[in-house]
Amino acid sequence: MEQYGLIIKTIARLMAWWLLFWYGYPQLPEEPVRLILLGAATLWLLFTGFQFNREHRYFPTMFTWALALAPWAFYGEWLWLMQRPATDSAVLSHAVLVYNLFRYVLQAFVLIIIVRIFFEKEPRRH
């Protein structure tokens, strides 16, 4: 019966991962649905990172929290860059490139973490 809880948690983690993958693209969220879905996915991945931290899984915690907060950090940087008077398109395209590379690497690591924790033989107890 305990396996069902792990399956439900893993499905919820994968859904949050997918929402960040699908809606975390480098453009400010203007639609309310996208903002709500990004917020929900961020909160769930932050909670997942908190669960990993309680289980003393510090590397999964770090990568999960970084993925959850990456879109919001990019949006903050984008707003900051747009307020600067001397910002040219090369700076903006560089910021988008760095964010996309960072986001894809984090998403790959978090997907590996989620799948690996699901297939562990004995789950950790806190």
Question: Any overview of this molecule?
Answer:
By secondary structure, the chain is an all-alpha fold. It contains 4 helices and no strands. The mean pLDDT is about 90.
The stretches of 5 or more residues where confidence is low (pLDDT under 50) are none
Based on Cα principal axes, name the global outline.
Answer: elongated
Largest sheet: none
What is the element string, with H for helices and E for strands?
HHHH
Helical content class: over 70%
Percent in strands: under 5%
Number of strands: 0
Q: Return the average pLDDT rounded to an integer.
A: 90
- Compute the separation of the termini in Å: 19 Å
Secondary-structure class: mainly alpha
Radius of gyration: 16 Å
What's the total helix number? 4
State the main characteristics.
elongated, single chain, mainly alpha, 4 helices, 126 residues
